[in-house]
Amino acid sequence: MNLRPIKQNMTELEVSETLGKKVLFSYRTPVAVVGFDPDAKDFYQFKTDKKWSNTTSRHVTLWFKEMGIESKGVGTKPQEFFDGLVK
């Protein structure tokens, strides 16, 4: 597990180095995830469908942009999905 501060109130948690699973936190809330599904042999990326704030939206957009992913094309999941990622 690796915690990487990106900027103020924006942090990335790398949960699994072998699977490349990373979770973005805006403030203290998990709001996006990227990773690799070994069963499907495919990468995935999701962002929360909940509207938090303009700042959180910018965090999500910036995080995906850093990875070369257009955030408008990223799938969404309910906030409960992200809350369950880190319990």
What is this structure's SSE topology?
Blueprint: E1 2-7, E2 10-16, E3 21-26, E4 29-37, E5 42-48, H1 54-66, E6 75-77, H2 79-85
For the report, how would you describe the main beta sheet?
6 strands, mixed
Question: What is the C-alpha radius of gyration, as a whole number of Å?
Answer: 12 Å
Give the overall pLDDT as a whole number: 91
The stretches of 5 or more residues where confidence is low (pLDDT under 50) are none
Tally the beta strands. 6
Residues in β-strands, percent: 35-45%
Quick overview:
23% of the residues lie in helices and 44% in strands.
Overview of the molecule:
Helix content is 23%, strand content 44%. With 87 residues, it is of the alpha+beta class. A six-stranded mixed β-sheet has the order 1-2-3-4-5-6, with helices on both faces. Strand 2 and strand 3 (21-26) form a beta hairpin. The two termini are 14 Å apart.
